[in-house]
Amino acid sequence: MAGVALRAVGAARWVSARMGRTRVVSVDDRQIHLIVHGEDRVVDVLFDGRRIWSFWLMRDTERVPRRLDHRTVAWPDRMRPYFKGRTELVLREHVADRDLHREERQFGEATSRVAFVNAQGLEISLDKSGRFSPTFGGRTEEQLTPLLDAMDAVIAMMAELGVDAFPAYGTLLGAVREGQFLGHDSDADLGYVSRHTTPADVITESYRLQRAVIARGFETYRYSGAAFRIDVRESDGSVRGLDLFGGFLDQGRLYLMGEVGTEYDEAWLFPFTTCTLAGREYPAPARPEKLLEAMYGASWKVPDPAFKFETPRSTTRRLNDWFRGMTVYRRDWERRLIGMGGRTPKGGPSDLARRVAAEVPADAAVLDVGAGIGGDSLWLAGEGRAVIAYDYVPRGSRGALAAASKRGLDLESRPLNLTDLRSVLSEGARVVRQPGDRVILARHVFDATNRTGREGLLRFASLALRGGGTLYADVWTGGSKPPFGVRPLAVDRLVELTERHGGTILSVEAVEGGGPDQQIQRMVAQWA
Amino acid sequence: MRGNRASAELRELREQVEGIEASIAELRRHHLRLAELADLVQELLVPMAERDEDRVAEAITKFQHGL
Questions:
Q1: Which residue range forms the structural domain that includes residue B7?
Q2: In terms of Cα–Cα distance, which of A438, A444, A417, A454 is closest to A352?
Q3: Is CATH 1.10.10 correct for A16-116?
């Protein structure tokens, strides 16, 4: 009997899914409630006529228990802060261009219109990574000119450097499918297939290309061993990223950072042809549709502003192992530290900073590694010390720097990425050549990175502290609530690693006063 | 008995595959380290070998600017 009932419910769903009309039941400040019929498809959400967000009717919604065909989707958390005022809210099927819902809606009590604009006053919407950025939709031709010029410049520059770059990912898709940038896209992507066939050579080539781009006056930002962003300033002052992804062909397989790993015929790449983007011609692989298929699957011709990559695990693992792992946890820290808005650190110094101030001769420079917003750095500088605040998010300490400069304190901020050997060794080589005594303060750094980062810090210490310098480190070993971004670390393993890098352990002790269950250990080590 | 032996063999093979996968991942990760070292040596070795302090400082500054 149960089987018959289940089959009946299934049949009813099948019929209803094909017969009914998809519509919105209600919208509130928390979610959208819909009745969904037919195939899964993508819907744009427009505020006062502008697309802000897109979602898939089935993939991104949840079924309401015991309600046939009823589904809900919560507003993305990032949208909520903007829900102030009135708007004309429209839900529109992206491909069919058919409105599912339209209403004049009030969020909160403000009388103004709901405005999705960033700090620079630019209109923004959610891009495919779920982040707010100034997407291309609604940009004038004049506003796009600097980006197109920059693409021209970078492609020409790459050609001079022996690399044939072409529009890739969303930019190639927009060019081939629509001759334009995709309205919901927010950045321009360029790709190239290296002449090298091993990842190590592809990485050194990418480093060389980045140096050449910087030498030509552009700001850059590296994502991985085979990809970096080139920042382009547009006419309205907005800075737009141009991502440059490296790839290589080996034994009939193409790998392109960051999503492609597939069987590939070289004849689909070379000789290059052209594609048209916003009225300009750009180089394109011989058979661009083959590359688009490798990037977006066979359905690349169907527009999807809520597209999510489904890269096979084997490809992700290869690309991770070969190219990634040099910016470990950086995004989380950027969000946290940059989100703090460069404010001057308040509150007293850490117990570790007090210990350093009490024990270390006054003329020894303090290297505050993993300085964050620079609270300890600023306090130590205020105590009359020469301090360098190191972090892989150096912008985090700009408030501390401004305060130090106002007070005439000796505080400097320098980038240091413990998971990038080039950063660690070059900074170590720079510091070791400076005269004077030094100590390193590393408060919750060993426990906020991975093994590569821990080794990076110890390598840096073995260079910077050569000749009697001391390392002071606090690590969380478990129990209670950890500080932000920290993972438990067994102190005996840290001791072993430190000794292996030439450090002599002076003491390891539990830190008192960290709370009833907080297990924080302090390690002090010295290099001869 | 045969079932026990087959499942033990399966377990052993699974462990072997996991071990091989881990080794491959380790080897793949050497590419990035090798490239970092190669880049560093290429950019800094010559000025350092010349033992010209100013040139070394300049080379380090230039190298770090390109990171």
A1: 2-65
A2: A444
A3: no
Q: Please indicate whether, in this complex, the C-beta atoms of B67 and A322 are within 8 angstroms of each other.
A: no
Beta carbons within 10 angstroms of residue A512's beta carbon: 9
Q: What mean pLDDT do residues A166-194 have?
A: 92
CA dist B51 and B53 (Å) reads 6
**Strand duo A387-391 + A411-415: pairing:** parallel
Contacts A–B by Cβ distance under 8 A: 84
Residues 6+ apart with CB under 8 A from B23: none
Residue B33: pLDDT over 90: yes
pLDDT digits (tens, 9 = 90+) for B34-52: 999 999 998 888 788 878 8
**Which residues belong to CATH 3.30.460.10 in chain A?**
141-323
Which of A197, A414, A422 has the most B C-beta neighbours within 10 Å, making it the best mutation to test the interface with B?
A422
As a whole number, the mean pLDDT across chain B is: 90
Burial per residue of A158-191, b for 16 or more beta-carbon CB atoms within 10 angstroms, e otherwise: beeeebbbbbbbbbbbbbbbeeebbbbbbbbbbb
> What is the CATH class of A330-527?
alpha beta
pLDDT band at A443 (very low <50, low <70, confident <90, very high): very high
Q: pLDDT per residue over A190-225, tens digit each?
A: 999 999 999 999 999 999 999 999 998 889 999 999
Least confident of A176-185, A226-235, A275-284, A325-334: A226-235
Q: Which CATH superfamily is domain A141-323 in?
A: Beta Polymerase, domain 2 (3.30.460.10)
Q: How many residues does chain B have?
A: 67
Chain B residues close to A415, C-beta within 8 Å: 64, 67
Query: CATH 3.40.50.150 occupies which residues in chain A?
Result: 330-527
Supply the DSSP string of A73-141, one letter for each residue: EEPPTTTGGG--EEEEEEEEETTTTEEEEEEEEEESS--SB---B-TTS-B-EE-TTS-EE--STT--H
CA atoms within 13 A on the CB side of A424: 23
Of B37, B64, B66, the CB nearest to A210: B66
Contact A321 B28 (CB under 8 A): yes
Residue range(s) of every CATH 2.60.40 domain in chain A? 16-116
Q: What pLDDT, on the 0 to 100 scale, is given for residue B45?
A: 82
Q: Calculate mean pLDDT across residues A161-181.
A: 94
Which run of H or E residues covers position A116? none
pLDDT tens for each residue of A133-155: 888 877 777 778 888 888 998 89
